[in-house]
Predict the 3D structure of the following.
Amino acid sequence: MRTFLFPSLSLALAAAVVPAAFGQATVGGSTGPGPVRVNQIGYATGADKIATVVAAARSPLRWQLKDDRGRTVSSGTTRVVGADKASGDHVHQADFSRATGRGVHRLTVAGVGTSVPFTVTPEPLYPDLGREAMRYFYFHRMGTPVKAEHLQHAAHAHAALHPGDNSVPCYKNWCGKDSRSGKAQRLDVAGSWADAGDFGVYPVNHAIAAWTLLNLYERENQAYADGSLALPERANGVPDILDEVAYGSRFMSGMLPEAGLASHKVHNHTWSPFPVKDIAAENAMPRSAMPPSTNATYAVARTNAQLARVLRKFDAKKADRLWASAQDAWKRAEARPDVDYPEANDGTDAEGGGDYPDTQNSDDRYAAAAELYLTAERRADRTVKTYRGALTRSAHYGEIAPVDWGRVAAAGTLSLLAVPNSLPAADLATMRASLRTVADTLVKTQRGEGYPALISGAEAYPWGSNSAIVNRMMLLGTAYDIGHDRRHLKAMHRAMDYLLGTNAMRISYVTGYGAHPETDLHDRLAWGQYPATPYPKGWLSGGPNSTLINDPVTPTGRPAAKSYAGPGTAPSAWGSKENTINWNAPLVWVATYLRSTAPDLTSR
């Protein structure tokens, strides 16, 4: 993934952040539905059920909801929203929330058209989506053969990618000589996930993906228990979600040379071809560990600290090793706190990977301090005062805001709210209140849009806009757990409506879901078998990108919500159709959460 930071939040949402102190078209590989846009899977009986209707009419239109026998079960008139800034569409909304009868339905709007069929049910709407989205990570394992028996499609099995990662050179020998051999140091970074459409590994991006999955486990530790996923490690006594994160995170400790900061990234010296069908040729490409950064070092610290915490009761020796590595990384970052990794193109590194430029590290330090504090307290480690002090004196203490790889302070705060600890009760209460305020603002933002995105039409749509939505859904879910405000849970459901069809592109952005799902994503491995073998189900497309488009096919000059590449363009559509570990991880989180909270939205 050619990664960039999110643009700033909308003014309304930014104001809610509590800082420190306290028509028909061919899309997605298929012909999309017409102007009556719905969640192409369906609606929970007690959820808000609101279709977006693209229509030029300036006055309300009659609508009818019919069941699978053609009987009208509800009717009414649309609300005229008018011009939707994000999409450029003139839209209405048809609210059929009072219709709670289970079954298959269609919505017809007079003079406009009829929706695709969808279900209304009190049962979980996406019972398998979390598990399918979780399988994305095994598919993208590197350093080990990926076997057919663990995949949705046997054709995607392949030999190990980059098994040579157990010994990679430091680019231009930045990490110096090995003290024992006197030869140039080489790093052991075996055991990772391919980051995105490329085969680089990046601590700062991996850290937020790993945190998201581990946060799900710490909030709901029955999710993805041992034997629940198709993994080589199943039936080993360890929850499968932890097995997967532990495998994908092995490389993190190895990013640390003998002394100094962690390598910011490891990748090829040139971009891999698209698609990759010859694994041997891919593995033969020159590959190095690029120069270091403070943020990457804090990323190693926080990931290993969190893993040490959750794995301790299953494998104490591994947890001890991870804890030692986390503490070591913290000390190294503290010793060199201002080594940034800007996007330079000055010959410092090779061009075959993303940059993940980030010139702010105070949030990374805070997030790392939170994980180290929580783990030290759990272990009754004497260092707990050090981490607690770094945490509570941080300018980010208590911050709540949408999370992204480059803005991670809220991840630290959300961990503090998920894991029991001895921070002052008043501080934790303030954090919870801040979270509810942000969630309320997200609800307001969504209600002001023609399509139920959690992004204001006044904002540009960032690279990975769909990940912005699922990350904001995580805030809504956590807020619902705290306050049980049904508006927050309903807003999560409406955001899923957006991802699954109620959007300006008329498609489901999740592979394998809906009548008109996305069918081709920017993935070098999956594309090698496409279209003979479909992409696995449960992969989230990056989504519209009007902010930083440098690929040749994502359209420019369109409204933000329509800045999305068309069918069959995936090899060149890295700006809008890429898939990544840090986009699928929050999809796992929200799909799992919506399943577990399904009983809360029965009809009433």
In short: The chain has a mean pLDDT of 93. The longest helix spans residues 425-447.
